[in-house]
């Protein structure tokens, strides 16, 4: 934060005093919404019941842990965020928040969220949240993101943990269903981000981030999208066949994966000239559908759990 | 330039302070609610009454200690008014 003197004598380029919303932006609220939803599903589909207050606290602190790792990511990546058009308006590159503040906020919220989740539910859930924050902030942001084109593949694990943490918060242990929910997001992340990279190519190139599009070319990226989409399908259908699934989930999984694979084949079949000619319409449509894909899968898990007491959901 | 009571900067700082106050207030309420839930259920209460109880021991020891504990409890209750062996609070 700048002091009042700095502000009063400010020029347009000078940092302004941050508002509360700027600190909220550091926590990546859009990512947090996905974390909240998947963690909620993880808690509700688990074969154990948390008290509503405990469940609320668990979701809140899982989301807060996700937000903390987002702040740490913004602290570390502020230099490349300033280069990319998609991220240059973030609080640090735009000068509204200083790097040290983001680091302090990220570390403080990490500690609070881990300790409070462990106290509210169990130590295993707290430990898993701590590992998730470490994985996203250190393994992905600091280590992998700038060093390997596999950054998205391995880093995707960080975003895949929330439903597993929710499950562990409710049951105290990891099981096959939790692993499959993790695997669903883990396998979904690469095609989702590579589709984004195909039509945001200049951003990653300018920032020097070794995305697959930069290191192996766009043709190879299109092939990788298809491979991961094909690998994702059995995971999604496998999850539908476990205790968290049911006929509804299976039908949703088959329909969504058929459409997703069809989209991946269309991306694979296109040349770069064709994509440029229609402004990457197919890639953008695939990216948008990928968001729906994940939301509908977890909604189906949730629907099975909600319908089960009425004898309608589950196997 | 006329002196203004509030500047845009002050409004922003007030918003930040108000936001922080609400977050801290919410945190206090949540911790209180969690405490009520945990105490109602008896979570985290064992082990703080300095009394060995059968459910805290491995299965083999529990049988012997449980019998001994019941004897001691009965004696204490009759003779010296000692704390009960189960259900004690810190």
If you had to describe this structure to a student in words, what would you say it looks like?
Chain A is mainly alpha-helical and 315 residues long. Chain A folds into 2 domains: 1-171, UbiA prenyltransferase (Tetracycline Repressor, domain 2); 175-315. Chain A contains 15 helices and no strands. Chain B contains 2 helices and no strands. The N and C termini of chain B lie far apart (64 Å). Chain A binds chain B through residues 4, 7-8, 17-21, 23, 51, 53-54, 56-57, 60, 119-120, and chain B through 9, 12-13, 15-16, 18-20, 30, 33-34, 36-37, 41.
Domain unit count of chain B: 1
Low-confidence stretches of chain B: 71-90
Alpha carbon gap, first and last residue of chain B? 64 Å
Based on Cα principal axes, name the global outline of chain A: flat
Reported for the largest beta sheet of chain B, the result is: none
Kindly state the mean pLDDT of chain A as a whole number? 90
List the secondary-structure elements of chain B in sequence, H or E. Answer: HH
**What is the CATH topology assignment of the largest domain in chain A?**
Tetracycline Repressor, domain 2
Given the helix and strand composition of chain B, which structural class is it?
mainly alpha
Number of helices of chain B: 2
Give the terminus-to-terminus CA distance of chain A.
55 Å
Sheet-strand content of chain B, in percent, reads: under 5%
Low-confidence stretches of chain A: 1-14
Evaluate the radius of gyration of chain A: 21 Å
Please estimate the helix content of chain B.
55-70%
Main beta sheet strand tally, sense and closure of chain A: none
CA-based gyration radius of chain B:
27 Å
Helix- and strand-based class of chain A?
mainly alpha
The outline of chain B comes out as: rod-shaped
Report the CATH architecture of the largest domain in chain A: Orthogonal Bundle
Short account of what is shown:
Chain A is mainly alpha-helical and 315 residues long. Chain A is built from 15 helices and no strands.
């Amino acid at each position: 934060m700048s002091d009042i003197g700095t502000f009063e004598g400010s020029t347009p380029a000078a940092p302004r005093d941050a508002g509360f919303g700027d600190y909220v932006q550091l926590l990546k609220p859009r990512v947090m919404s996905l974390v909240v939803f998947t963690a909620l599903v993880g808690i509700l589909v688990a074969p154990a019941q948390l008290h509503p207050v405990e469940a609320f606290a668990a979701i809140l602190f899982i989301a807060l842990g996700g937000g903390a790792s987002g702040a740490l990511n913004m602290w570390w990546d502020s230099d490349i965020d300033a280069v990319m058009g998609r991220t240059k308006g973030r609080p640090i590159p735009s000068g509204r928040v200083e790097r040290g503040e983001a680091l302090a906020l990220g570390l403080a919220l990490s500690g609070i969220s881990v300790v409070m989740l462990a106290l509210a539910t169990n130590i295993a859930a707290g430990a898993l949240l701590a590992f998730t924050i470490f994985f996203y902030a250190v393994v992905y942001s600091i280590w992998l993101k700038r060093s390997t084109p596999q950054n998205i593949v391995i880093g995707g694990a960080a975003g895949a943990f929330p439903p597993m943490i929710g499950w562990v918060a409710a049951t105290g242990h990891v099981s096959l269903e939790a692993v499959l929910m993790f695997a669903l997001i883990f396998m979904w992340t690469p095609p989702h981000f590579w589709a984004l990279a195909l039509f945001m190519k200049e951003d990653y190139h300018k920032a020097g981030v070794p995305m697959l599009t930069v290191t192996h070319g766009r043709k190879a990226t299109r092939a990788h999208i298809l491979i991961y989409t094909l690998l994702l399908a059995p995971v999604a259908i496998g999850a539908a066949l476990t205790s968290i699934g049911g006929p509804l989930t299976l039908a949703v999984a088959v329909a969504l994966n058929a459409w997703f694979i069809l989209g991946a084949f269309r991306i694979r079949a296109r040349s770069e000239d064709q994509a440029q000619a229609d402004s990457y319409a197919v890639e953008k449509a695939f990216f948008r559908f990928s968001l729906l894909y994940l939301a509908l899968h977890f909604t189906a898990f949730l629907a099975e759990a909600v319908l089960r007491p009425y004898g309608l959901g589950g196997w | 330039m006329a002196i203004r009571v509030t500047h845009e900067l002050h409004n922003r700082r007030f918003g930040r302070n108000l936001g922080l106050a609400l977050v801290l207030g919410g945190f206090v309420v949540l911790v209180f609610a969690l405490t009520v839930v945990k105490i109602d259920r008896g979570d985290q209460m064992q082990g703080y009454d300095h009394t060995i109880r059968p459910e805290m021991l491995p299965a083999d020891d529990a049988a012997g200690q449980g019998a001994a504990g019941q004897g001691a409890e009965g004696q204490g209750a009759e003779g010296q008014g000692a704390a009960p062996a189960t259900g004690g609070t810190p």
